[in-house]
Amino acid sequence: MIISRIYIFNVLIFQKGPSDVGCNWLISSSAPDHVKVLLAFPRGERQAEVIGLACERLGWYVTEVRDTEEALDQFQARCHEIVIIDRRGRYCQQADEICRALNNIHHQASIIIAIVKKSFFTVSDQDKISTLQVLDNGYNRALIECSSTEIVMNELIGIYANEVQPKLQLAVAHSLYLAVHRCRDMVHVTNDRHFIQFANEVSEKLLGYKLEELLNKNLSEIVICENFTLMNQQLQKGREFHGNMNCKRKSDETIMISSRIIPFCAYGRRPTHYIYIYDTTYLLENVEVTSTSSSHLHPRGSSHSLRSFDIGSVGSDLQRRSSVAKLHNLPLEAPITKVISLLTTAMTDAVSPDVVAQIDKAIEILKTTELYEPYVREADEIFNDPVTSDLIGALISAPQYSRDSRRSSNDSSGRVSQVQRILHQQPLKTMSKSPRAPRDIEILLDGCFNWEFDIFRLELLSGRRPLYYLGMNLMNRYSVPARLNCDERTLQNWLTVIEVNYNVANSYHNSTHAADVLQATARFMESDRLKVLLDPLDEVAALVAAAAHDIDHPGKSSQFLCNAGNKLAILYNDLSVLESHHAALTFRLTLSDEDVNIFKNLDAETYKIVRYNVIDMILATEMTKHFEHLAKFVNVCSIRTEESQSEPFSDPVDSSVLLLPENVSLVKRMMIKCADVSNPTRPLTFCIEWTKRIAEEYFRQTDEEKKKKLPVVMPMFDRSTCSIPKSQIGFIDYIINDMMEAWNAFIDIPEMITYMKQNYEKWKEYNERGISTLQDVERLQQSAELQMPQST
Ligand code: AMP
Ligand code: ZN
């Protein structure tokens, strides 16, 4: 009974230590039923018997000795946790001799107790504190003689809990300290202001400083984090941070080391210490290898600094860690290397075999698979609907190798010389001088930020030049001429040239689609979130990219061009063929003439930034990268939706993280992507018109593939058989829905989602009503139900 209570007490005491460091495992000899007690009583007598009995009842081991020699022998052999020496009356001197001898052996975990008479505390000199006399002689405390076994038992338990256990804990802490001091990873412990309190042995070797020089130095003088802002944010929140550190050696060389920083709260809630652990095992091996000939490191990655590992002598985890460490110490590091390293560490630390297996599997996938290339699960119902599987397959898979080497007639090489011709055609010149649009167009453009903006009416009113009118209006609203330091006329010319280079013959990829994407982009940028996130040049680049993103689209997919051996496919090596062409042609045309070049007054650096952004956004419209862009955006910018707010660990997005340039890029890519395929989220009549146009374009491609005996990219998109409603249901299910939900959660334009859901239900209804072909859809458009004004 007593023993089990002591045990609970024992456990509680040990749990007072750092919450994530369990040191119980090191103190196996501390279990209370194994406590060893040395009794040094020169003459066997009653007091020794009482103590012996008390120990026996506690289940403790007792060794009795009579003199110093015996005491030393036994103590050295057994390392007793408690030593009790008879220091009464005439034995006082001998007792002190034993105590001194034992102290000389320096067994730190032991408690030495002097048994004294009651009078010891009462009759001594008033000015002297008796206990001090005992302590001065090397005892830890005095215990008054006692003939009651119960009282002695209670005293012994008190002594064990309050004195023996803390000493054992201290001994454990020392052993851990030694382990850290000697381990091969460099370790620094700092206070909350990052002043070094502890640096282990390896630090000297790697950094070239003496330990005394490191102590109390501010760590930031030596160690610079690549991603300091993120690191600080994480640490402030009490979270562990993983990242690369640039460690400056005393000799001024810098070594990049993968590291983790663990905040530690010794008391309270705020971190009192930071533990820096640098993955230097592998570096250290280099140091050891090279130290025979030279005292400093070879440059990282140089072949003679690499030493092969003794594979036979290490476990597979260790091998993996080593090879990851090797990768880490190369001068360049891909984020995937960091991820694999973190997972490897997690796997090494994981206890459950299931978790280990799952992490192992994850690492395999990360190492071997095209990470963002989606695959359709065999069981998925996408295979049940051939129209959907055709469409989604064609949209998201990269072009296959060309099976046909015939050339197509698509040729845009003469376009640059067209610019002059276009600019000098009379009607355009006249229009350049009179930027005011006809009244009805102006009235329409007043609502250019509405999600219900009627782009088809603008197409009609503008004589199929919606991009010019909408572009001038929106770009002026966004002060594009002022921001680019160009005159309005250059912008007019630019929009004219861009619009003329869209193919009017395409039913879908013409300048009305470009204008539609431009309108959606401008609407998105009116949102509060994007107003904060995007700077003026971002906005300009986005408008330029949206207007030009499909320029000179041939009305056929990249896959078609590859299959046909088209010269664009040859030029761009079958990679991002159309998007590369749109971006390249945009700049070719822009730079071809001073009167068109809206960038001509930008300084070189600003031009570079705008050019990068325009290209990046145009390339982001490539659908084969759809899941990659979406996944990256969701991972970084995901905002809590209503359902996820109840989840305890879902964090609202951190705006300082969003403002990192790489994350702003993710947002800009998502913005143009959503604008590009926003047609299923527009009011029903617009949505149907867009669907009709894209279906017609797909059908024309199939017609031509068949005619030219090319591989048919989407066999289901045959005008005689294709179910248009089914294609839209699949398109919304697999491409649009998740993306628009995520985008709406980010910028809050709920009408997009409302229309998307309504349209989805309508396509289902049309499908059930047997509406299928293009003619069916055209009849539907003429029907009374769609001639009614659409409610919003
Ligand atoms: P872009 O060529 O830049 O316009 O990229 C958008 C892709 O999505 C194109 O391949 C279009 O064919 C496709 N797309 C857009 N809207 C639809 C739609 N309603 N149904 C099927 N595919 C669509
Ligand atoms: Zn497009």
From TrEMBL:
Gene3D superfamilies: 3'5'-cyclic nucleotide phosphodiesterase, catalytic domain, PAS domain. It comes from the Eukaryota. Zn(2+) 1 binds at residues 513, 549-550, 676. AMP binds at residues 509-513, 550, 676, 728. Its EC number is 3.1.4.53. Residues 432-770 form the PDEase domain. Keywords: cAMP, Hydrolase, Metal-binding. SUPFAM superfamilies: HD-domain/PDEase-like, PYP-like sensor domain (PAS domain). The active site is at residue 509. This is 3',5'-cyclic-AMP phosphodiesterase. It comes from Ceratosolen solmsi marchali. The gene is LOC105366449.
